[in-house]
Amino acid sequence: MHHETAISLGFEALTFILSEDELKERFMALTGLSPGALSENIENDAFLASVLEFLIGHEPDLITYAEQSQTSPTDVVLAWRQLGGGVGQEW
Amino acid sequence: MEKMPTILKTLDNKRPILLVDADEVLLRFVERLESYFLDQGFELRLTSFQLTGNIFHLQTGKLAEPQQTKSLIASFFEACVDDVPSVEGANDALATLSLHYQVIILSNVPPNCRERRAKSLAAMGMNYPLIANKGDKGPAVKAFAEATKGHTVFVDDLPPQHASVQHHCPNSHRVHFVADPRLARMIGKAPNAHIRCDSWPKLTPYLINLTEE
Questions:
Q1: In angstroms, rounded to a whole number, what is the distance separating the alpha carbons of residues B139 and B144?
Q2: ipTM for the whole complex
Q3: CB of B187 within 8 Å of any CB in chain A?
Q4: Residue A19 is nearest to which of B173, B205, B210, comparing CB atoms?
Q5: Residue A7 phi, psi dihedral angles, 5° rounding
Q6: Cβ B197–A34 below 8 Å, yes or no?
């Protein structure tokens, strides 16, 4: 997967999370990010990887997102890896 | 007619500002341009992200001269400025975003066409102050950013405008938006923009979030 595709998938995943109140609250609590800090982190690969990791970590969310955005859970994982997620994890 | 100094005076200095381009951001510019060119006997071949060098005479197959390109575009605005359809979701997005931002449309529309464009946007539900800018948008964005303590967000399709805005107003948040999917495929994120997003429904929750402290 191209880096740019991964970034765009990461951003889409973020907008999905932000548009669902319950998901958004959980995401903000887990990452400890204040909404104001979003704009400072948006260009950071590691941040977008953490967004994708949040979805990957909870299968129902991952499936809902994949369905809504017409992507596949596999692509979400590929994008996460492209953005530096899962380094050192062998499976 | 609204002029920039007048609009600047009416702004609330505590609320964030959203500066949005019109062509290829709120309006399906290229699509309408293509059909106008065909009526004039020219074909727009979208092989790269620019107009110059992509306009061909239908009968001869020859490339339009730079001067011809210029006058075709000028006559397009004269003929069609109030007949350009809106981008999907743009109207709803601005309606939602206007609860969080002071929305201003910053368009490089020729000054003599400004009034017609404003009326047409209003008729499509996008009744926001419209600035007819000329050339680089950086200075205008800077003037608006200085009028508020809140965020200033800039949305535009053209990479050089993002460079200009970053130069004049580095604290602005810049969104690269290309509505036409054929054009969108030809160009990556503008280097001077923070994010690339070509969909209003997707962009909306993100922009709302930026205003939350």
A1: 9
A2: 0.85
A3: no
A4: B205
A5: -65, -45
A6: no
